[in-house]
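Run Asparagine synthetase [glutamine-hydrolyzing] through structure prediction, thanks.
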Amino acid sequence: MCGILAVLGCADDTQGKRVRVLELSRRLKHRGPDWSGMHQVGDCYLSHQRLAIIDPASGDQPLYNEDKSIVVTVNGEIYNHEQLRAQLSSHTFRTGSDCEVIAHLYEEHGENFIDMLDGVFSFVLLDTRDNSFIAARDAIGVTPLYVGWGIDGSVWISSEMKGLNDDCEHFEIFPPGHLYSSKEGGFKRWYNPPWFSEVIPSVPYDPLALRKAFEKAVTKRLMTDVPFGVLLSGGLDSSLVAAVTVRHLAGTKAAKRWGTKLHSFCVGLEGSPDLKAAKEVANYLGTMHHEFTFTVQDGIDAIEDVIYHTETYDVTTIRASTPMFLMSRKIKSLGVKMVISGEGSDEIFGGYLYFHKAPNKEELHRETCQKIKALHQYDCLRANKATSAWGLEARVPFLDKEFINEAMSIDPEWKMIRPDLGRIEKWVLRKAFDDEEQPFLPKHILYRQKEQFSDGVGYSWIDGLKAHTESNVTDKMMSNAKFIYPHNTPTTKEAYCYRMIFERFFPQNSAILTVPGGPSVACSTAKAVEWDARWSGNLDPSGRAALGVHLSAYEQEHLPATIMAGTSKKPRMIKVAAPGVAIES
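Sure, done. The structure for Asparagine synthetase [glutamine-hydrolyzing] is below.
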């Protein structure tokens, strides 16, 4: 993924502002280490830090139309760019970049072309003929984007918060699925799928249709001119991504260029069960497997860098981002620039363990809708920023627009977890790939219980984090937390520690407001906490907090201190160095 920064309509000294924009753009250079570009027209600046995936030789940005009256800076991938080029046969293209179609589509359709793009993207387009501009973000928010307003009347748009937080009077998350138009002076939603209204669907479950939709989503993401691989944990989602990639890689342009041997990558604490599971899947699929290990101390030492790059103080995001951050550096060192990952499946199919307690199909469906709408603040943020920190791009086929439409049109009764019928979490997805004649995966992998990303790295990873923060945050500090942090007040020492680090990097009130909050158990929304009375006293994002569901649910002595307050037992002391398990994606 690349980094974009645009400053539009500033009133400052032109040369001084250009120097400042260049300085701020360099804060995004980790996202795009391959090339830096800048275009200035009067008081408007468009800058770009490029990670070259498609057309590395000539696809530098910003990009233009034929007479350079239209300028665009883009972060993303347009998977249907070849079909769109065919529709734009009267236009002359300067590069082989998949993103150049945006400039020409604007010439043909004005602002009404966004839904024609099949891919993930954040872009700013400047029309120099009238000095107007538009900015847009992809449907789900796979690519990050922020918007801010300067006291001088300027509008700032940046891939990361660090590109604008020091120069804007106010800034916020650019909402996914939206377009910002300078002519209209505000946002409008361009992405309006049927599921967005949360009306309960009634389409019968068709396992073959679901399988074909996912296979299509994976194969279109094999568009690359650079070496790539898959993130593989041995869990269901990443294993399906790898299995489908292996099955469809032969015959693609990527295979002709880089060969048919797929590379797979996993990370975990030494001796972890999931490292073993990932290796088993890799052997079954015949991938070239790369296994990386880290220690709890390695992870703790990286926390400050992780918070700086992910730009969040959300506990579960930081827990899960850290091993992904460490693994991404290793992957990039091997010369790989793109990986395919399994984010989004749990939100679409109700895969988190708390969905076992969904009281009916209506509440389950509404919860999945809310989870998808919030992905840009959680798993999308993690997958993008933890990898982009090292100039690595992560692609997420479960969040393909067409696949989401297919999956979210299914009558949610089929997604309900029904032990009496042999249906565990994500049964509809598992069943779709349960092929007796040509198995995608071994049965025990296909029907393995869900582990959340941060739990999957190893229970000792989370326990180690808690022990570390316990020794760095005092009870007296916690007693004053509501006064020091009145918004999203941290309720645990771990959360307090992350908040301190975050505000050191991003002290502005606008920054604090970009991070979601509220009660959650096992990554649920606040509404779903009501599904089980026991959960209200066990508000931890770990899957083990789903009492009565997880096979390794917290025992009483493992519960957070907030729960221990009502018991006679003392919390056990945790040793930091202990074996764990690898990433589940």
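Confidence is low (pLDDT under 50) at residues 554-585.
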